[in-house]
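Hi R.,

As promised on Friday, here is the backbone we talked about, encoded as structure tokens. Could you run it through your design pipeline when you get a chance and send me back a sequence?
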């Protein structure tokens, strides 16, 4: 394992602090926000008219998750950004791994702010429609966030056209949408397993198509249910636009933060070895998400 620079050591401290949010005031604040949203959503979940909205959201999400073309990024545009910043030899994802983390962070800049702004505008428009807008709003929100994850991945040298990287991206969404500590632990266990497996440079054993499809369907269903519960306040006309835009920006903030920290950690793991990955929970045994919502009726 090569020696970490001062910048890299500081980055790892930031990443490890983010992975243990309960020790920070921000982590406690997120719990205060998440728990009432989840409880309120649970109460309204079986209300008349909600079922079709949930089914529409889940169907839309399944389509989005299966069709990578909807949310893929253009790596060449990102490689060009690096070349314009003086890194003239960057023409592939692998070339990025030859750079220093500090150099990459500089090129990434304020990527998260761009997506938070887009989410705020999209969510406000859909929120004004009320509950009927959920079937369109939720898949649109996830498409936007998958693109954000894809950009973060590309900046740090990871190719989301690969199966393992698509699974990683979906589990970032699973982490960001988790309403409880147990669901966060499940998502983090998946993320740690994939991170370690890739960092150890083992040959990725492609999952059978049927198994991969099943995993994507389970994640899509869980996301549809979680986000529907969290956004049910949009059913109140006077609050719909505010909650819609506000929640979308809040959710996108969580997704962008997760992508930022996790891909930086993975970049350092590729460079210095899998041991730099902070194991906050035991890595999962397989790639099945096992989210409770996957067995819930809608």
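Update: got your reply. Pasting your designed sequence below so it's all in one thread:
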């Amino acid at each position: 394992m090569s020696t970490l620079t001062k910048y890299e050591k500081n980055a790892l401290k930031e990443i490890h602090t983010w992975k243990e949010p309960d020790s920070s005031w921000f982590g406690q604040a997120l719990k205060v926000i998440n728990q009432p949203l989840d409880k309120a959503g649970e109460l309204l979940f079986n209300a008349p008219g909600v079922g079709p909205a949930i089914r529409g959201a889940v169907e839309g999400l399944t389509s989005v998750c299966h069709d990578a073309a909807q949310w893929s990024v253009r790596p060449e545009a990102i490689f060009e950004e690096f070349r314009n910043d003086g890194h003239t030899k960057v023409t592939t994802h692998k070339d990025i791994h030859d750079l220093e983390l500090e150099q990459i962070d500089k090129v990434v800049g304020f990527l998260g702010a761009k997506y938070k702004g887009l989410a705020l505008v999209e969510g406000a428009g859909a929120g004004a429609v009320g509950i009927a807008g959920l079937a369109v709003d939720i898949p649109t929100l996830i498409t936007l966030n998958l693109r954000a994850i894809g950009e973060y991945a590309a900046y740090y040298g990871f190719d989301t056209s690969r199966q393992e990287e698509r699974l990683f991206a979906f589990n970032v969404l699973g982490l960001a949408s988790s309403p409880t500590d147990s669901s966060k632990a499940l998502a983090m266990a998946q993320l740690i397993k994939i991170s370690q497996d890739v960092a150890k440079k083992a040959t990725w054993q492609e999952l059978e198509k049927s198994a991969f499809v099943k995993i994507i369907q389970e994640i899509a269903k869980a996301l549809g249910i979680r986000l529907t519960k969290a956004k049910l306040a949009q059913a109140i006309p006077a609050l719909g636009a505010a909650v819609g835009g506000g929640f979308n920006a809040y959710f996108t903030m969580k997704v962008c933060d997760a992508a930022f920290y996790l891909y930086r950690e993975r970049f350092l793991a590729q460079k210095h070895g899998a041991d730099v990955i902070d194991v906050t929970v035991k890595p999962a045994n397989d790639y099945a998400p096992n989210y409770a919502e996957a067995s819930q009726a809608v």
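One thing I noticed while checking it: Residues 23-27 have pLDDT under 50 and may be disordered.

Thanks again,
M.
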